[in-house]
Amino acid sequence: MIIDSSLSAIVTGGASGLGLATVKALRAAGAKVAIFDINQDQGAGIAAQVGATFHRVDIMSEDSALAGFDSARTVQGQERLLVHCAMVSKGGKTVSKDKESGGFKRLSTEDYAISAQGILIASYRMASISALGMAALDPLVDNERGSIILTSSAAAEDGQVGQIAYGSLKAGVNGMVLPMARDLMDLGIRVNAIMPGIFATPPMLRFKEMNPPMYENLEKSVPFPRRLGQPDEFASLAMELARNSYINAQTFRIDGAIRFPPR
């Protein structure tokens, strides 16, 4: 797939972090980009700065997602590229000590379900809505109609203590990639996922300000290079997955060779 002014793209979570870096990379290549994010003020401001459009979308809501796709397509036409970075998740151990009662408590089924909605179901929601629109596009070289890039996590393979919801549901995203790619192969739509390790996104940068020594220890835990990933490195991989039409049904770790210990 050629990334130029003829390409229409949608990036969820595009107002910050990995999504924002991807928006900037796509705009630098000339693509038309719609930012989906729940943060109205930040998203609108960034869209104005980089020459994208902003659409307030809550990935937890089917109606909000459908309205966002309709709005983006009205402005820039049917997207051929979706990069899904947004997510909602709740942390907690399966069972842990309860400081208040002195006994034990579990991560509630309701909290796990919120994470399921915000990670796994939202990934299916955004990908399937996008694929439905892509299916009607005229084919390009090799009969390609579109590319969907989901965001998983290195925690999908080595989730840590307190990541029962996050780790298992990101593993679910990985599990979605192959069957979805096979579902869409006759339509010429590719599906891949990126599994980032620890990246220098806004939450991690705030952590660096609050606790520099622990942040340095995090950096040292990465085998090579001994630092956190930069968002533009994630964006670079996303761009390659979009451009390279022979990459399909793959999950890619980008993590400096880190393997997370239990905690």
From TrEMBL:
Keywords: Oxidoreductase. Gene3D superfamilies: NAD(P)-binding Rossmann-like Domain. The keyword Oxidoreductase applies. It comes from Sphingobium indicum BiD32. It comes from the Bacteria. It holds the Pfam family adh_short_C2. One of its GO terms (molecular function) is oxidoreductase activity. This is Short-chain dehydrogenase/reductase SDR.
